[in-house]
Input
Amino acid sequence: MATRNAVVLLSGGLDSSTTLAIAKEQRFRLYALSFRYGQRHQVELQAATRIAQAIGVEEHRIIDIDLRAFGGSALTSDIDVPKGRNPNEMSDGIPITYVPARNTIFLSYALAWAEVLKSSDIFIGVNAIDYSGYPDCRPEFIQAFQTLANLATKAGVEGTAAIMIHAPLVDLTKAEIIKKGIALGIDYSLTSSCYDPSALGEACGSCDSCQLRRKGFEEAGVADPTRYCVSQVPA
Amino acid sequence: MATRNAVVLLSGGLDSSTTLAIAKEQRFRLYALSFRYGQRHQVELQAATRIAQAIGVEEHRIIDIDLRAFGGSALTSDIDVPKGRNPNEMSDGIPITYVPARNTIFLSYALAWAEVLKSSDIFIGVNAIDYSGYPDCRPEFIQAFQTLANLATKAGVEGTAAIMIHAPLVDLTKAEIIKKGIALGIDYSLTSSCYDPSALGEACGSCDSCQLRRKGFEEAGVADPTRYCVSQVPA
Output
């Protein structure tokens, strides 16, 4: 089988980095796509660059998009990022860190690039188990985007290639994702998941994302390589 | 009935301007959204601003997005815009002026803004009759985006409001659109449809978009108020 191109959405966090490694394992030629979207945690873009290099991609593009223009989220406005929430309660309701239509926008750009690259494969690291309650991380959302993608594009209309949105983590727990990534040789110390890291890139340890990540390492029985900002870690 | 907010995609062309007037007629409070996306024809953004002012909107935002980053279209790269094609043959195949995933990206941004505005109504001026062969102007594409939108968002998940993608022009011919717009009082001299206008904003008269527009005015029996660049109009 000839190697095919895939566009992989890469935030620099644990999930998207694992997704990139899985796409590599499946022998795709990798085109990693990241966004500078006004997020507080731009440290994650440095992480994305490190991971893209470590895993080995054909090209890594960082696109500027202005989600701050609309606001509506703790990640793109001056609203405080919630800290110290109980991980078991995170899926009750949609948290304030939800960025309106973010994955829809990210996948739309991925679709544009895929179309230009003549790629019919897009990877996204969404996860419906430990998913923090975001509506656009659910399998039915991914399925609906795939349907849309096949109507939206030349390839879809001409029937030359059915576009597939791969979400290989969708049914995995955080612990399972970590085990998979370790098996694929990922160095998770290169990744960054924190919503509110220090200027040095240290994780706060108490936002939803830090807590889910830490719990994942514990449950996987793997030493957590994350650099935490000691003063911010709850006792 | 209380007035509701609607996000209206506004390019500054004939179709989106008519769509804006239709949304106004339906008593929506209007939030117009335009994009600076590396298009050759930035004159259309000036037209969008004029039309937003003339029709009267609550707010008009122009978002910078970089579709040139991906290329793949005569509208966002150095590929020549085709001229002098026969309008009856334009729907055979997808032309080089097609911008990959453009309407998917535009609608995604509209969805983000709608979510922040707590609006469940998005208007887009796509048209499947005189549609120049773009896959993302078809009714099935709009329907698929509506399905996606209701899975992608808080409102969709919480069941508080079903998002509706309004495409009021989808079944109209260009002549019918023009008649509708004239009845609503639109001054079409404010609009700009040309893919390759002169620096002064004059229309070339021979790209697909100019030809469809001109034919529309002829068939509607309405005087065409477009300013053409005389030297470029074919005999």
